[in-house]
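Intended use. Records like the one below are meant for learning the mapping from a protein sequence to its folded structure. Do not use them to infer anything beyond what is encoded.
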Amino acid sequence: MTKGRLINFRPFLAVFALLAATILFSLVAYYVFPLGVSLLSLLAAVVIGLSVLSAIGHDYFRLSVWITAFALCAFAVFSFFGTLASRFALEENKEYILTGRVTEHFSAADGAYTATLDELFSDGTDIDGKLTLTVEDISDVNFAPECGDVIKWSSTVSINELVSADGVNASSVRSDIRYYAYAEYTDIAYVSEGEPYALESLRLGLRNKLTDGMGEQTGAVAFGMIAGDRYLIGEEVTEAFAGAGIGHILAVSGLHIGLAAMLVAALLSKVGVPPAARAAAITATLLLYTLFTGGSPSAVRAFVMCAIALWARYFGFNDRLNSLCAAGTVCLTISPFYLFECGFLMSMGSVYGLIAFSRPLCSALTKLKLPETVAKGLAASLAVQIAIVPLTAVFFSKVYLYSIIVNALLMPVLSAAFMITVVFLPFTFIPPLAPLILIPSGILQFITMISAAVSALPFAAITVRYAAGAVCVLPASFVTSRFVLRGRKYIKITAFIVLVIALAIACENGIHTKSGIAVIGGGAAATVLFHGGNAYMVADFSDGAQVAGAIERSRLLCENFTVYEQNLNDETAEGIIEFAQSYGVEKVVFPLAENTTGFKRLADAGIKAVAAEETDTVFDVAYSHGEPCGWLCKANGTTVYITSDYAVKDIADAVTCTRAKATREKCVNPVYTAWDTGNGSTVVKKGKHILINFQ
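Structure written out for the chain above:
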């Protein structure tokens, strides 16, 4: 009876559901304190009531479940608000003298050096968390600190908010990046040499071996597959994998943990290690591997489920849904903010899809006379996609049309690429055998080529805009699944109503405003002004695809723009043409300057371009030392200065800078000094840039 009750009751499902509800109610309390506290109190009363009923009925097993749930929920509340209360020690728009140690994440490209720093100090005071530093204008100097080196510099910082009006930036908890700083080379006081830590040396050594043997890009993909680190993978490759629906191979998950377990099990079996010792050794190895990859939620989830499966024979049961909820409970205990992280939800959702839908789908495909192997592959791929489509729609505003087929066909190849890479990796230390690493390199290049081809197909990625409520489809589908329904009509009717409500919540959602300013994040900065029912955009069009991607992710319900570009050269013209493949471009407005070579390129492409001085425009041109430096306009009675990097309101007061979180590459909350010229103009100075607002 105990075993049957354990499987039927699924204790970790109860604990996980209560824990998730507690975290959601804590977020509600952050925004609306009385409502959130009321919901948390009601939930606590329910758990206490269930505990009392279990005690009265002498059901001590369930009593222990409710006590465990109550303790974990209380811990989650304290962890949630404790993280928020102790997150920041530095203030924005304040000059600091900072020192920090370079971690393994550093790079130098396009005349700028970017590094993530830990062990931060401000004026001798220890600062918790990490900081991403960008040092600009290094083209003419030799500035390339490496992992372990210590940098001292002076600058302002920008805070990486965890919870804001825009939602929860859950990934910042795992990365622990709390600040961003931007400095010029002249702001650097010194760089002292240091040494990377042992784990960093191991990861850097692995990365260097792979990139040396496979090439920079393919090696970066291989390192991403093994270590779950996408830092060095180019944007084109990342987009190709995402467009083909196999971006999950770059995050350590069940595929990687399962294959690693198979490799270790095969090796230990060959040398005759007993089953119990073999399970212990595999568990220890997987734990080390999870820590090596940074302990992402998907890796932790996969490790817990694999460990439960390894030891199931010694406890007499193995229920996959209960194991999944146990893994989710462990993740949320580590950090309650994982509940809002894309990686955690995608990982949990994909496994739930396999558990809930793969078996009936496989039976249906088998009835269609498909071979069993093909039916299983297609059923698994389709089951995962059914579960994660709502998540991809919410987080990425995309649905990848060919992902089901691509995953079914490429999953064996992906598994082979991972296994062969790991097996051949030791040969890179033996010079005569080092070229063997080119075998998995060729497989990864083939996968990359196929991904690029698929992502370039028509309708490979369909843009959708759904509210966050779309994820309610997952719990609604659980209610309607065989895990809950047992032939009772009233349950089916209730479940159907719940599903309909969830689908109604998941209606199209986006920015409908026709006035004001929307500062949009993404791979490129983009500022959109709504004026008179029209949308006008200033953006960095050096990469039009990035701008289009930023607009898509912004939930901006607008298909046509008037584009304002201050440097109409060939590069930006090509970017505008690329952007026009995704969105309508009414016309391009540009200031007369020395370099307007892109005008002819736009004309050849059939895109109208007019000089700002020759037409009535919403924007006026802002000049610095006689050169165009941005645009000025009146929005809601406020003068706004806009470039592709930032939008600044109330120039006369020079205190407000509005920017999207994801576009911090070039300018974050700069400090401005302003003075009145006495002739109706305001001169605003930021560093070496002088911005003139003509009133």
